[in-house]
User: Fold this.
Amino acid sequence: MDDRPIGIFDSGVGGLTSINAFSEVLPHESIIYFGDTARAPYGTKSPRTVRAFSVEIADFLVCQGAKMLVAACNTTSSIALDAIRAKQPGMPVQGIIEPCAEKIARECTEDNSIGVIATPVTVGSKAYETYIHRLNPNLKVHAQACPAFVPLIESGAYENGGMDTTVKHTLDDFIKSNDIDTLVLGCTHYPIIRGIIEKLYPGITIIDPSFALAERVKSVLKEEGLAASEWPGRRTFYASDLSQKFLGVIDLLGISGDYVLEQHRL
Ligand code: DGL
Assistant:
């Protein structure tokens, strides 16, 4: 048994959308979350910068006593896991893309038309296509970069109908021309606007990778003998800019129970 926390991180508020999945699948695990709100978005930065920022966050979480690192950030998961592993040898490091892609590869068929919406860095990496096609080379996978979404979500624009036009402008043609029936939210910020996407494109199956991630982390902890003992886990949320928006997303997602909030600049 190991009661040290799992270190979960993202460029900003996005990874908070995974927290409820972790609370449900791993209720005994303590969590330290880091959202790099002062430097988001990552998905429109260069891969080199994303790697450098991701390695810094990983270092911070390890210094805070994390027993495992979890990138609840597709952008980091698409290009920075090797850099983190090189800096943290021996530390289990899990990204969000692989477990979701494996689930899609197992559960979808050639009749499906799968759409992945994500940041420009994630789309440019082709990470979803690579992991899916490794297990099921015949699946039809289409990817669409949505560079406008994260800055709007970080600014809270989803609150007043301020995103519908941008979502339509970015996705209408992509969804229609590719006949998408299964849409992967390939950026952890996007579950915050899931309601808007569902309203605009009813009937499409939407996949949020968070549950596949939490299930994978559960297996890794078990395999490595790192699972926590039987008591409710503690949660600490760090943000590099602890703004009202960050607190607003915690409320919006209904993240309940006791938790500690801290600001930490890297
Ligand atoms: N939420 C992150 C992701 O899953 C990063 C978004 C960003 O900072 O651009 O890709």
